[in-house]
TrEMBL record:
This is Molybdenum cofactor cytidylyltransferase. It comes from Enhydrobacter aerosaccus. The keyword Magnesium applies. Residues 172-305 form the MoaB/Mog domain. InterPro entries: Bifunc_Mopterin-bd, MoaB/Mog-like_dom_sf, MoaB/Mog_dom, MobA-like_NTP_Trfase, Nucleotide-diphossugar_trans. It comes from the Bacteria. One of its GO terms (molecular function) is nucleotidyltransferase activity.
C-alpha cells in the first residue's frame, strides 16, 4: 500500500487519510475519492491530500475484515457487516464464549495489519453481546496476510470464536443437616440456588433435606432420580475435606462415582465432581450458599452450556481462578439493582418501512403494488428489511392499507420480525409516516433506519452496512449512504433524534436534521445505484425494469 502526500490530480480512487471539512466540503477520513470529489477539492484550491492507495496485492480493509471474521466465526455467532475495517462478532443467545486463545495469539502474530480481540474464554455472554472484533489496522491488508489468517482459523477444524448456548437443565438439590442447622439457612440456600439456575435458563425441580450421613444422602439422591434430573447438587452441612468424606461416600452408595475433588479456584476450592446414572453430580463448597461468583458458578456455567467439565478442565481453571477480590463478576441481582457500564451490546436497530404514500406522480395506480421483476415493488423492500440484521421491521401503512398489507403478509415468512402500524394522516405528507413509525418504537430500540418502500434495489447488505457504521460513541449517530459522493436513502438515526423526528411536518422527512447535526453524520459509501434510485413515475419504473433485466 502506498501512503502519503498525493497530488490532487492523482487522487481519484485514493482513500482520504484525514477528514477535510472546509469551504463547503465535508469529507470524512477513509472516503474513497471519486472524480466529483477531486473536482470539488480542486475548486477549493486543494493541491494535494494525504491519502492511501492499495497495491494489486492488497485487500480493502472492509473486505479483509469480513473475510477474516467469517473464517473465525463458529456456532452461536452473528457477524456484522464490515465498516472502517472492523467486523464484530455478537452472541446470538445466552451462553459461554468459547475462545481458542492459542490460535488467536497465533493469528495476531501473522501480520500487524490483521488483529483479533476477544472476550476471555468461557465468559458468560448475553444475547447480542459482543464476543470478538476483527480490526484491519491500515486501509488495506496484504492478500497473503489475510490468506494466512484464514488458514489459521481453519487449521484445527474447529472455530476460533463461538458461543455454547445455555440449555435448560432440571436440577435436584440435597442439603444435609447437623444438630443446630437452622432451617432458615437451608431455605436461603434454596433461593440462591434457584436464582443461579434461572439465570442460566435452568430450574430447581426438587430439594431433599436429610441427616449428614452417607446412607441418608444416597436415599435422597435416589429419590431425586425419579424427578428426571439432569444435574444433582449435594450441599453438606459440613464442608467436604476428603475424597472419602460423607458427601462423596453418599454419592458412591447411591451408585455414583467421584471423578475429581478440589479445584484451583478461590473461593470454591472444596468442590467435588462426580457422576450418577450418567448425569453430573456436584458436591458443593460452602461458598455455593453465597450469591457471589465462585468456583461453583464456573463449573455450573459450563455444564449448562453443554461443555465438558472433567478433571482436565478443572485443573486448568487456576489462571484467572482467584475470584475473591473480583467485584465485577456477574451475580444474581434483585429487582432495582443496576450495573454501571456493562458489556458492549449489538445495537437494537429497527427498520421503519414507509409504505403509506398515494403515488401521485404515478398517474393513478399505487406504485408499491406495481409488478417489479415478478413481485410487487414494496415486497423488494420488505424482503431486504427482513433479511437484514435489524431487530424488527415496522411497516407504516396508509393509502390502500389493506391491499399493501395483504401482499406483504403473503411474502413475509410466518413468525417474522414484521409488524404494521397505520398512519391516518398519510395524505399530509411523508413526515406523518415518519412520525407514526418513530412513535411506535419501544424504549429498547437504539436506532432506526427509515427505509422507503419504492427503492427496490436496496438490499440487506446495504442495510447491514448502515447498521455496522452506527456508533454514537465514535460520533456516528446519523448514517447516510452515498454513491459517488451523492447522498441517498435509507438513513439510520440514533435514538437521540427521535424526539425531533416526532415533530416533523410536511413532505420532506428529516433531511434538515442532517444539516443541523453535520458533526454527527457518517457517510457510508455504497456500490451501485440502489441508494439513489427510487421509483416515482411510470418512466422510472420502466427504466428500472429494463436495467434489472439487462
Amino acid at each position: 500500500m502506498k501512503f502519503g502526500e498525493t497530488p490532487i490530480d492523482e487522487a481519484n480512487g485514493a482513500i482520504l487519510a484525514h477528514s477535510w471539512r472546509a469551504n463547503g466540503i465535508n469529507f470524512a477520513k477513509g472516503r474513497m475519492l471519486s472524480p466529483d470529489d477531486v473536482a470539488k477539492l480542486k475548486a477549493a484550491g486543494v493541491a494535494s491530500v494525504v491519502a492511501a492507495r492499495l497495491d494489486d496485492d492488497d485487500i480493502h480493509e472492509d473486505e479483509a475484515a469480513a473475510t477474516v471474521a467469517k473464517a473465525l466465526a463458529g456456532e452461536g455467532i452473528e457477524v456484522t457487516a464490515p465498516f472502517t475495517g472492523r467486523c464484530n462478532h455478537f452472541a446470538r443467545e445466552a451462553g459461554l464464549a468459547v475462545i481458542d486463545a492459542e490460535r488467536i495469539d497465533a493469528l495476531n502474530e501473522l501480520d500487524e495489519s490483521v488483529t483479533v480481540a476477544t472476550l476471555p474464554a468461557f465468559t458468560r455472554v448475553t444475547p447480542r453481546q459482543m464476543v470478538a472484533t476483527v480490526k484491519i489496522i491500515p486501509y488495506g491488508a496484504p492478500r497473503s496476510a489475510v490468506a494466512r489468517a484464514v488458514d489459521v482459523a481453519k487449521a484445527a477444524n474447529r472455530p476460533l470464536v463461538s458461543v455454547a448456548p445455555f440449555r435448560a437443565m432440571r436440577v435436584g438439590l440435597v442439603q444435609t443437616q447437623l444438630p443446630g442447622t437452622r432451617e432458615k439457612v437451608l431455605d436461603k440456600a434454596v433461593g440462591t440456588t434457584g436464582k443461579r439456575l434461572t439465570a442460566l435458563g435452568s430450574s430447581l425441580v426438587g430439594e431433599r433435606r436429610c441427616a449428614h450421613d452417607a446412607v441418608a444422602i444416597a436415599t435422597a439422591l435416589n429419590d431425586l432420580k425419579a424427578r428426571g434430573c439432569d444435574l444433582f447438587l449435594v450441599a453438606g452441612a459440613s464442608a467436604i475435606v476428603d475424597r472419602h468424606d460423607v458427601v462423596p461416600s453418599g454419592i458412591e452408595q447411591a451408585g455414583g462415582k467421584v471423578t475429581h475433588f478440589g479445584m484451583p479456584v478461590d473461593p470454591g476450592n472444596l468442590l467435588l465432581t462426580g457422576e450418577l446414572d450418567g448425569k453430573p453430580v456436584l458436591g458443593l463448597p460452602g461458598c455455593a450458599k453465597s450469591p457471589k461468583y465462585n468456583g461453583f458458578d464456573m463449573v455450573l456455567e459450563r455444564l449448562a452450556a453443554g461443555l465438558a467439565v472433567g478433571r482436565a478442565e478443572i485443573v486448568r481453571m487456576g489462571a484467572g481462578g482467584l475470584l475473591a477480590e473480583i467485584s465485577t463478576r456477574p451475580q444474581p441481582r434483585g429487582e432495582g439493582d443496576h450495573e454501571e457500564g456493562g458489556p458492549q451490546q449489538a445495537p437494537r436497530v429497527a427498520i421503519i418501512l414507509l409504505a403509506a404514500g398515494r403515488s401521485t406522480r404515478m398517474g393513478g395506480p399505487n406504485k408499491l403494488l406495481a409488478d417489479a421483476k415478478g413481485m410487487p415493488l414494496v415486497v423488494h423492500a420488505v424482503t431486504a428489511a427482513l433479511a437484514s440484521q435489524a431487530t424488527e421491521v415496522v411497516v407504516v401503512l396508509g393509502h390502500m392499507a389493506a391491499e399493501v398489507k395483504a401482499v406483504i403478509e403473503q411474502a413475509a415468512p410466518a413468525g417474522s420480525k414484521i409488524r404494521f402500524v397505520t398512519n391516518p394522516d398519510f395524505a399530509s405528507g411523508l413526515s406523518t409516516s415518519v412520525r407514526t413509525g418513530i412513535g411506535s418504537l419501544g424504549k429498547e430500540i437504539d436506532a432506526a433506519v427509515v427505509q422507503l418502500g419504492d427503492m427496490p434495489g436496496v438490499n440487506a447488505p446495504l442495510l447491514d452496512r448502515l447498521i455496522a457504521a452506527f456508533s454514537p460513541v465514535e460520533g456516528r449517530s446519523i448514517c447516510v449512504p452515498t454513491v459517488g459522493g451523492k447522498r441517498g436513502n435509507p438513513v439510520l438515526w440514533d435514538r437521540r433524534f427521535f424526539a425531533e423526528m416526532a415533530n416533523l411536518a410536511g413532505d420532506s422527512g428529516a433531511k434538515h436534521l442532517i444539516g443541523e447535526h453535520a458533526d454527527l453524520v457518517c457517510e457510508v459509501e455504497m456500490t451501485g445505484e440502489a441508494a439513489v434510485t427510487d421509483i416515482d413515475t411510470p418512466e422510472a419504473l420502466a427504466t428500472w425494469r429494463a436495467r434489472s433485466e439487462a
